[in-house]
């Protein structure tokens, strides 16, 4: 990474499998399964977002991380469960509610879908993207 910064001019990095990285600055993809009760997404996702924040702390607070907690909550909200968007103290759900300067909005990429094996991922219908736009600016 030092060589990429010094000689190739790289400024920032994105890491897949961020649990293994020790970045100078990055957007980490710390993927972890949300909290479920059976097949139902649990309302309380505090431990899920805390694990992401713990990873950010472990980077010396130099990295940001994709906010997979908010992704999972928004996926349920667009199905009609709008109450999921209301959390204590008027802050948004997910990492953006606890540490917005380190939360990077995440909706979908090539890794999301049924083949990924993680329950936080499922296909986000294209018609929900316009609904999600106001929430993308919260963090």
Please describe what this structure looks like:
This protein is α/β, with parallel strands linked by helices and 139 residues long. The longest helix has 13 residues, at 46-58. A hairpin with a 2-residue loop joins β3 (36-37) and β4. The chain has helices at residues 2-6, 46-58, 68-77, 95-98, 129-136, and strands spanning 13-15, 26-28, 36-37, 40-41, 64-66, 103-104. The strands form two sheets. The protein has a four-stranded parallel β-sheet with strand order 1-2-5-6, covered by helices on one side. Strands 3-4 form a two-stranded antiparallel ribbon. It has five helices and six strands. Mean pLDDT is 77; it is low at 114-124 and 135-139. Belongs to the glycosyl hydrolase 13 family. This is 1,4-alpha-D-glucan glucanohydrolase. InterPro entries: GH.
């Amino acid at each position: 990474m030092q060589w990429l910064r010094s000689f190739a001019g790289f400024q920032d990095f994105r890491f897949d499998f961020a649990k293994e990285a020790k970045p100078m600055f990055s957007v980490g993809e710390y993927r972890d399964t949300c909290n479920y009760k059976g097949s139902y997404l649990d309302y309380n996702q505090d431990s899920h977002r805390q694990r992401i924040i713990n990873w950010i702390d472990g980077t010396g607070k130099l990295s940001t991380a994709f906010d997979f907690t908010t992704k999972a909550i928004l996926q349920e909200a667009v199905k009609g469960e709008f109450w999921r968007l209301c959390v204590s103290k008027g802050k948004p759900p997910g990492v953006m509610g606890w540490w917005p300067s380190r939360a990077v909005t995440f909706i979908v990429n090539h890794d999301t879908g049924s083949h990924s094996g993680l329950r936080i991922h499922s296909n986000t219908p294209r018609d929900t993207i316009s609904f999600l736009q106001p929430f993308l600016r919260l963090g």
